[in-house]
Amino acid sequence: MKIIFLDIDGVLNVISQGRDQFGSIFHKHFEDNLRHLIEQTDAKIVISSTWRFSGLDIMKDMWLKRNLPGEVIDITPYCAIIQKDESYESVERGYEIQAWLNKHPDVENYVILDDDNDMLDCQLNNFVKTSGNSDHPDKIDIGYGLTKICTDKAIKILNRK
Ligand SMILES: [Mg+2]
For the chain, how many structural domains are there in total? Predict the structure, then answer.
């Protein structure tokens, strides 16, 4: 199984495109790029964004009602409390993703899509950063979003042998 660890704000949601019962509506272009990524890799989605605090059922419901691409199979656990060492704040999301991966040894490949840097060193080869990309033609604002270049990078990572 291939997994996309998906952050939402700064990846699909940059400048709100309106609202519905779930919250801010995402950019259509970034949704389309996610669809392309899934078509090319057959990866499943695990939500790592703070949007997951609404719960897995709400995330699945949002995917269904908004007709978002792919299948949300899970959300990452909340680990901040058990990672109370000095470094946890800077790699908090990385720990949460690692905790999920440790419980799923059948994952053959994964990619992390996030606009923040808080990943573990061992995850950096599987990380596509969706911010600071002011040179990407289809970025939003000062360089955010799941751009075409980010999408192609993620496809390469997930299809790596
Ligand atoms: Mg974010």
Answer: 1
Domain that holds residue 141: 2-159
Beta strands (DSSP E) in the chain are 2-6, 19-20, 23-24, 44-47, 72-75, 109-114, 127-129
pLDDT digits (tens, 9 = 90+) for 16-33: 999 999 999 999 999 999
- How many A from CA of 144 to the centre of ligand 1? 10
Q: Please write the tens of the pLDDT for every residue from 81-94.
A: 444 555 545 568 99
- For 20, residues 6+ apart whose C-beta sits below 8 A from its C-beta are 65, 66
Q: What's 48's domain CATH number? A: 3.40.50
- Surrounding ion ligand 1 within 5 Å at CB are 7, 9-10, 115
pLDDT-derived band at 78, boundaries 50, 70, 90: confident
Q: Are 158 and 2 in contact (CB under 8 A)?
A: yes
